[in-house]
């Protein structure tokens, strides 16, 4: 995938900078996006304003792979600047030589733009060598990444197909479980726990070419904390939030989907919350179109909850129950990226890939969340989630 | 686990700093170590020189979990400083107020030590608010992490037990495979590929409570690039490097082990390389003791190879074949951490957990690597690897 670097060109021109520099490993999504190189140790990527070329500086160990796999126009290794092992001073001399080579400008005349996340230690060393650094506080590459190409949307959809298979596996385990006399779900003679369901989800994702760092399978009062990952036995009649956000190993793109299940009928409150959350989801989705803001979409969800008397962070900024998070976020090389569907969310554009995930939480009752993933289109949105929205698993 | 912060106290005292600050998510091992909090969004951890207290600043969404799970003496949420959603200026005002609260010093009088990786964007914002920042270029917390407590060593051993189970699963697949007429390994009627072996390794690790980002299963000429992860069908009579570095999901600690297998007899060169690499492993291990340096251990491995006429980076800095990487590295919350067994490797101490991984590489022949993980003890080392060193799988 060749990123469209027009925004980067404009930014560099506005800042009168010679190049844009990222120093990070490829867990940094901007690094992966700009370099096209997946490496677990930090390396340097420089994008030259003058030529539009992307050039990499890697260790000798990564050189062969970087030449084959990255999207860089040019790959240098440390030895190209006379560095193998050495001290910090020698390392930064090499680093400055690399930047100078990329921009064809003496280090002492270089102006280099870097993201906010750029390491302060390197910044100080480069400044000591006469390089002027400009912080890209608005995250130009984050902005570029928000609008996806068709290929990127396909990549998210592939991850979403794996996600649906994993959700089916999780629901099937809950569906097939027996219920013992105290309400605990039982599968193959053992309590069915969050951990067992999570393991089934992860194995399903692996078989579909995806990996993940974590998954939420949270039951009862655990479900009332949106970031609780869940542990221990699952119980009948209580809400079980299953939130899965896999990454495709082949492409690095994520998806993100949440469903809430109840084995057998839940409490009246949870039923009401579920219907209300579904209504909030539909209202939020109806607000999605180019030109609307992330704040508009968030407001649409808040209005449904507030009209039903449920607290939101908008109506009660200090609340710890009710709708206590934003309505959604962009998804791509990061599972949380631009745009934001929150009070600070800016204008939506065609090609944005976003999740919409309203929910209600209260430790006294548990929690409910429903999350679909959609693509903003020229005239609204396309929902790329293919999974039923049903609470009760009998 | 409560880290021993004596080195940090000394560093802060030497720098006359009021506190040590980390801003990162818990993928940053120093953040996880100091905060004891596992979170996928960035947060702030401040260690106060005066009180030795660790204090966290997290979003409202993480507040409940941070209070329960972190090792912090005090957890603040954004709202404690009057911030919910807001612009960058308000966010950094909150951030400076937090630091001021932790150290009980006005922001304009604060001296704050930060790691080299500290984000430049935040550094500039804090400096604008009068905070003086000092870069901890030598990585005080990296140094603290290198020496493990008994609990941390147990955590690595747990990950290593999972690693051994995964290696057994990989070897069993190779062992059970048939060989078709062109030498391709066949399992269940399909070519046995790097991808299938990797999938079996990953599923085994998941079942043992571990996860991983990547695994190397590289055959033939792929094995000649130490960072090639491998793809496609495996062949008989060629070296297959299997390098597994899992992370325990419960503790965050890693292990790391490599074996090289050949289905049926390999070439004479690969046999010689294997015996030589085993000899280099033994020589390097024999050099491991407190007071020896990482450079000494690396030299011991290089000497075995050089005596046999194989190039090393020590004898031929520009070589692309032979022993083309360092001899090993520390393992803990990061899979690569201090100390280093390389020309720049400093003194070993009891409690260091290190891998020793000599290897030989040449695209014309393939590659061989053998890697054990050991703990440096008062009088030498304890090898915590329990897996045979055997090349040929019949």
TrEMBL record, chains A, B:
Domain Peptidase M24: 155-378
Matches recorded under InterPro entries: Creatin/AminoP/Spt16_N, Creatinase/aminopeptidase-like, Creatinase_N, Pept_M24, Peptidase_M24B, Peptidase_M24B_aminopep-P_CS
EC number(s) stated in the UniProt entry for this protein: 3.4.11.9
Record keywords, A-Z: Aminopeptidase, Hydrolase, Metal-binding, Protease
Molecular-function GO terms, alphabetical: aminopeptidase activity; metal ion binding
The Creatinase N-terminal domain, residue ranges: 7-147
Similarity annotation: Belongs to the peptidase M24B family.
Name the record gives this protein: Xaa-Pro aminopeptidase
Organism: Halalkaliarchaeum desulfuricum
Lineage: Archaea, Methanobacteriati, Methanobacteriota, Stenosarchaea group, Halobacteria
């Amino acid at each position: 995938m060749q990123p469209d670097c027009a925004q980067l060109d404009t930014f560099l021109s506005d800042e009168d900078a010679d190049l844009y520099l990222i120093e990070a490993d490829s867990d940094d999504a901007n690094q992966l996006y700009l370099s096209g190189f997946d490496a677990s140790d930090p390396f340097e990527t420089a994008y030259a304003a003058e030529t539009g070329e992307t050039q990499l500086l890697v260790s000798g160990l990564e050189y062969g792979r970087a030449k084959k796999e990255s999207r860089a126009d040019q790959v240098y290794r440390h030895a190209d600047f006379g560095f193998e092992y050495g001290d910090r001073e020698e390392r930064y001399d090499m680093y400055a030589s690399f930047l100078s080579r990329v921009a064809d400008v003496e280090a002492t005349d270089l102006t280099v733009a870097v993201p906010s996340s750029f390491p302060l230690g390197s910044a100080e060393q480069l400044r000591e060598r006469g390089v002027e650094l400009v912080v890209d506080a608005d995250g130009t590459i984050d902005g570029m990444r928000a609008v996806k190409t068709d290929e990127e949307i396909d990549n998210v959809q592939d991850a979403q197909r794996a996600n649906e298979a994993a959700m089916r596996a999780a629901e099937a385990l809950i569906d097939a479980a027996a219920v013992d006399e105290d309400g605990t779900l039982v599968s193959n003679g053992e309590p069915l726990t969050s951990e067992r369901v999570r393991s089934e989800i992860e194995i399903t994702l692996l078989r579909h070419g995806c990996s993940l760092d974590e998954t939420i399978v949270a039951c009862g009062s655990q479900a009332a904390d949106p970031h609780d990952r869940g542990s221990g036995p699952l119980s009948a009649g209580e809400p079980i939030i299953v939130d899965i956000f896999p990454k495709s190993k082949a492409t690095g793109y994520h998806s993100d989907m949440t469903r809430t299940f109840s084995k057998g009928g839940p409490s009246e409150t949870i039923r009401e919350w579920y219907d209300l959350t579904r209504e909030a989801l539909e209202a939020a989705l109806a607000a999605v179109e180019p030109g609307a803001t992330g704040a508009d979409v968030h407001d649409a969800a808040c209005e449904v909850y507030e009209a039903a008397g449920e607290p939101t962070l908008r109506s009660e900024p200090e609340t710890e129950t009710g709708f206590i998070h934003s309505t959604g976020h962009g998804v791509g090389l990061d599972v949380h990226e631009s745009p934001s569907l929150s009070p600070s969310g800016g204008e939506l554009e065609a090609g944005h890939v976003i999740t919409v995930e309203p929910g209600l939480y209260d430790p006294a009752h548990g929690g409910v969340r429903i999350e679909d993933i959609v693509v903003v289109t020229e005239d609204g949105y396309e929902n790329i989630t293919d999974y039923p929205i049903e609470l009760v698993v009998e």
